[in-house]
């Protein structure tokens, strides 16, 4: 038996595009849930800690052990953001985003944090202690919406979510 005019690459590409579109829709739902949880959970806004600017450092030292023992070691660090705005809640909220890692890959991710909100991982994973010494436990605003939707993800990706 012979099949003529079989365009397998085009057919599979259409299915792949549909699945990727559905995966983006699912992760958009996770993103909306994460933003709702973050907005509802973060109630207190810490004061400005320091004015924002980019900073770097020149480091030089003489190690007492290792292969460079007794020799001067010097290097220059990369520039990094050293400030915070008044409303860190808005910074975290604004930094929540969905990212497709590349056109060739099927990775769809939701991120929180950027150079302005570099402490997002502390709020999500480890908790933090404020300047008053009060410990704030981790707030799983990304993890819990993802796990809540985890069971239905494959079905939504395969069949679509209606968007």
Give me the secondary-structure topology.
Elements: H1 8-41, E1 54-55, E2 58-61, E3 73-76, E4 80-81, H2 88-95, E5 97-100, E6 108-111, H3 120-126, E7 128-129, E8 135-136, H4 143-159
Antiparallel strand pairs: 1-4, 2-3, 5-6, 7-8
Task: Describe this entry's structure for a reader.
The protein is of the alpha+beta class and 163 residues long. It has 4 helices and 8 strands; from the N terminus they run H-E-E-E-E-H-E-E-H-E-E-H. It has 2 domains: 8-49 and 84-159, no CATH class; 51-83, no CATH class. It is flat, with a radius of gyration of 23 Å. The chain starts with 7 loop residues before the first helix and ends with a helix. The model has no long low-confidence stretch (mean pLDDT 79).
Short recap of the structure:
The chain has 163 residues and is α+β, with helices and mostly antiparallel strands. Helix content is 40%, strand content 15%. Strands 1-4 form a two-stranded antiparallel ribbon.
- Placed side by side, the strands forming the largest sheet appear as 1-4
Structural class: alpha+beta
Largest sheet: 2 strands, antiparallel
Tell me the span between the first and last alpha carbons.
40 Å
Tally of separate helices: 4
The tally of beta strands, per DSSP, is: 8
Element pattern in H and E: HEEEEHEEHEEH
